[in-house]
Amino acid sequence: MLAAYDAQRGDEYRAVYRFGTGDARGTAGPARVEVVSAPALVPADTPPPSVAGLVRTGASAASAASLIRLRAVAGALVEIEAPDAWEPAYGRLAEAEARYRARHG
C-alpha cells in the first residue's frame, strides 16, 4: 500500500507498507504489516516507488479505520506526555515560519 498525503506546497508525505496474513482492511484476521519504505517528504510529482505488487487507489479507499490499523507498526505511535503542548512533526517549517526566517535569519 502506498500511503500519500498532501503536504501542501507541491509535496506529499509518502510511505509504502506491505500486508501479510489478513488484508489491509483487517477483514480476514489480523494483518502483518511490513514497512517497505519509511515515511518521507517528497515532491508530489515524484513517481511512485518501484515495488512489486504496489497498487495505488484513490481517496475513496482511504479511511481513518485503515490508518488506525497501522498502529501495530513499530514507531507508528508515540506517547504524548503533555498533549496540551504537543505539536506535530511536519518534516519542514510551516510556510509562515519559513518566510520569517528568510527575512530575519
List keywords for this structure.
105 residues; 2 helices; alpha+beta
What would a concise description of this structure say?
Helices cover 14% and strands 24% of the residues.
Q: What is the first-to-last residue Cα distance?
A: 40 Å
Largest beta-sheet characterization? 3 strands, antiparallel
Percent of sequence in beta strands: 15-25%
Estimate the mean pLDDT confidence. 74
Helix % is 10-25%
Rg, nearest Å: 16 Å
Q: What spatial order of strands do you see in the largest sheet?
A: 1-2-3
Spans with pLDDT under 50 lasting ≥5 residues? 22-29
DSSP helix count? 2
* Count of DSSP strands: 3
Structural class: alpha+beta
- Outline: globular
- In N-to-C order, the SSE pattern is EEEHH
